[in-house]
## 1
Amino acid sequence: MSVPQSSGDLIDDLRDAHTRIKIAVLGAAARGRVSDPDAVLAAITPELAAVKALAAEAALRVVVETERRERTERARARMVRLDESRVRNAVANLVVTEVDKEFDPRGCFVYLLWGADPDRPLYVGKSTKILARLGQHMGDRQKRHRVQRVTVIRCRDGRQMNRTEEKLIAEYQPTLNILGIE
């Protein structure tokens, strides 16, 4: 079975076939055969076969596009469930001391993962998707057990986020930033 062409091409082909059927009927009428149904049918039979093939191709295209859209939606739903799971794991393993009731997780953030040493964070990072990023960190069992608290700093924009992260890494020299996070 051939790969369906674009919907626009199919519509153009159907219009062309419709025009050819009209021309065949008009030709039969010009030859005085309109009163002869068999002659008209014989004149338009090849065009009707083309229309039938185009309709089958259009139906196949609808099926292919529907399956692709459903696969995409299922993949998106899996990613959302994975992100939600990471966030749940992150939240379940952190002790929250204070959270602003108006906290909006959208924006630019720098975060510090703190371990047993209250003076030096384990890791300093940045993210524009803070909950998903913290969920990724907390999804790693080794890291999750080492992290005792998290500090999140909201930044005005990406430039401030980058500068803040650089300054904090330079100041604290976090172990996981220096040795590598993996």
Note: The radius of gyration is 32 Å.
## 2
Amino acid sequence: MKIGALSQQANVPVETIRYYEKIGLMPAPERGENGYRSYAKAHLERLLFIRRCRNLDMAQEEIRELLRLAEKPTADCSEVDALLASHLSHVRARLKELASLEQTLVSLQRACASPGAISDCGILDGLNTELEKLSDAEPHNHVPGTHGAGNGD
């Protein structure tokens, strides 16, 4: 099948498929004499696996590791379990960070008791105060799919 058909069947944009090929998550397809990529059922299965992992907010390196482990079907699955346990721990930590973020936002919203001039805005004043507190705190990263502070996995 051509890349457009693969994209449609997997519900993944063509650009994403090309990106996955570029970074090695997807194997390179064969190319016809016309230069078009030709994908097999195995490509679709791999793409669907990657998509499911991304839906679970797994990082590229986690997916890469799962794919590597999947190539050893008779090996002990403890490494897969350990990877999932690590990911679950990360998700739980992010949930705590998000709960804290929610409380901060609720507090900021309460700072605006009534409509008034921007110069008297309790939210903006609170944001200035919060920014001072955050400059001393450990940096947080709330970008989906990234693990750890400030790294772009």
Note: Strands lie at 30-31, 37-38.
## 3
Amino acid sequence: MNRALAQTLRDAAQSNPRSAGTSVPADLRLSVSDLVNLHGASSGPVLLMLMAVLATLPVAGAGMVLSLGIFLLAWTWLCGHDQMPLPPRLGRLTLNPTWTRRCLQGLAWVYEQAERWLRPRWALGTHRRWRPLWGAWMALMALLIFIPLPFGNVLPAISLVLLSLGWMFRDGLALLLAGTFGFAAMVYAVSLSHLLTALVQQAWARLPA
């Protein structure tokens, strides 16, 4: 399934809409809604995967919009629902041709690697009783993405990608790695915040009275 999906995404990146099975604009300006349609589904893990990958792209204002979308998805998970309607504002978020192609190729690579390395194991981590915990984790990672720190969105986005893949494949090891990257993201955010605060205080102290 994931191998076929990866090929669909690569076909779309090569501007071959007939192979991709969907209508792809000639200039490859895809929106989040278009990317969901390429997947053929809008389940929670799929949306989480898309929003996490897009959050790493240097698109003005995307991080804020996507983090709010992840917050909404986290709330949906906390309420015990597997499906979430795509918010209109998020669905209209559109990438330019360069980042559309890179996003498609990146998603294809992720699915290819997932097909190769992930499998059902360590089932305890994927039990439904842990859904509230993972929903809260998603909200925490969304908060880190929302905070405007240099490269501060990369580690939480990786954590969310691993979370979505772990839930898709029922792979507890992927969920453990999601927690590891998320913890590293928190350490990075706290350390960088302290560093920036110290630099500002030093600069303020050097100002003439």
Note: The chain has a mean pLDDT of 83.
## 4
Amino acid sequence: MMVGKFSYGRLSLILCLGLLGACQTAIKSEPEPLADGWLNSPSVFATQRDRLTQLQGWKLTAKVGIKTVSDNESANLIWTVRGTENEIRLYGPLGVGAVRLSFNGDRAVLKDNKGVEHVGVSPQELLMRVVGWPMPIDSLAYWVFGVPNESQSYQYQVFDGRVSLLDQGGWLINYETYKPLFLDDITLPKKITAKRTLLINGEESLVRVRLVAKSWTRTR
């Protein structure tokens, strides 16, 4: 699933070929308390990673919204992974119309609503440049499964036996609801809100990314 140093080319391999366990370092049996109730033990995420090693491909259907100091937009999202290929489709009440973002280890391509293709190395950079959405796709690929991107440091808090807050890469991620969305033995986050202050067009803005998962399915 999702562990180890992140690169866009390895995203689906990490998610779908079960490299989780191989990339884990020393696991401590109990979380170590930090200041103000924060924890940082990777053992909390071990079971979820082990279960997700079964996945060889997946499709997430969700509602996603982006709120900044000047914009408040939402769209429907379909994220499909097959092998090393990722495709994110955004459509609905999106300010620039429907777009399709495809990426693998070599490049990223965003096709806008007029059929024009915009090419880049980073899907995250393309989405910001063309759509104006500061969505952290690299780490979101981990967060939607309820685990952190282990290429970055993190800390978390637990409520009622589940991770409720994750602090990583300058983002504060709030896990509001969990639900067995697909596969009987895997419970995944249903509602996620990630917040961070970013500099957008020369102006400091609090950015809020909210994702509500509707369904997960396997792909081949």
Note: The two ends are 16 Å apart (CA to CA).
